Structure formats: C-alpha cells, structure tokens
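Question (not urgent): is this output format expected?
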Amino acid sequence: MKKLVAFSTFALLLACGDGLVTPDQGPAAELGLPDAAAVQSLLGLEPGEKWSFASQLTFVGTVDPGDQQVNAGGILHIRGLVNEFAMTGDLAGSWFFQGDAHINLNDGRGRSIASPALLEITSPGVGTFECPATGKLEFFPTDDFIQYGNHSGCHGTGDFEGLRMRAWISNEANPGTGGDTVYDLWGEIW
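Got this back:
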C-alpha cells in the first residue's frame, strides 16, 4: 500500500514537473475565477485563520412546498420544503433551505431540520457551502414569527473547496413571514 501511495504521489509530481498539470489550469482558471488559495488571500486569511462574515437573507420564494400534513394534535408536518433566499453582504448569492419543519399550530412553536442548507456564493469567489442545519421557530404564522438556526459541518466547493464554515441565522431583529422579512446570517469560514 505504501508503494502505491508513493508511486501515485511520484506520478503526480512528475506530471506537474513536466508541465502536464499546472496550478493555473482547471475550470476555475478557465473561467477566470480564483482558486481556494486566492479566495483565502482575498479574504486576508492565513492558513488556519478564520474569517468572520455577516450577510442578510431576503425571502425570494418557495421552490417546492413539500408534503404538508396536520395531525389531530394540531402539529403541522412539512417534509421536503425548499425555500430560496437572496443573500447580500459579506457573502452574496443565494441561500436555500431544503428540509423538514414541524410546527405546533396551537402555540406557534416548532423545529426545522435542513438536509442540507445550501449557500450558492457568487462573491467573494464562486462556489457553495452545504451543511446540515437545525432551527427553532416561534410565533408561527403571525407577524411576530421568529426563526433561529445554526449551520455546522459545512464544506465548501468550487473556489471554497477545502474550506469549512459554521453559521447562525435569525430574523429576531425583523420578525414576520412576508417577503420583506430580512434574516441575519453570520458566521466563520476557515
């Protein structure tokens, strides 16, 4: 096994040394996009250093309402819901909730589980972060509706390949259910 790994490493080094594979090749370079090291540099990150960000999410619409059922106890079960949000601020692009929610219609409280939450980032750099996320819901479906959530175990793709993220979300500063509700999204990338 050690010989196979050593040979594979040797073959990769040989290919790079012969000019067959260079760091400036690949899809990101062909499109003129930065690679992960360039994004880290753009963010001013040293290896192992974390970058704190703050963005805002605005509801765009429901892509898929999923399967919705209310049981005899007044619990609304939503499975397969997909909502899209526009993302602005330090991270720009789109944020998608893809998952399930369970809400007690008697008191307006509930939980949500994203599997996964997907951040499609267009600036800085181009790529995604996918991660499981959990949420807490209060005062549904009133104008005081509040959601809190956290994302952990997020892994980047594209220009964010090799980077990780954790983030939190809340609309506590701007409660409600309408399209003008703004959610705060903040977290760290490393």
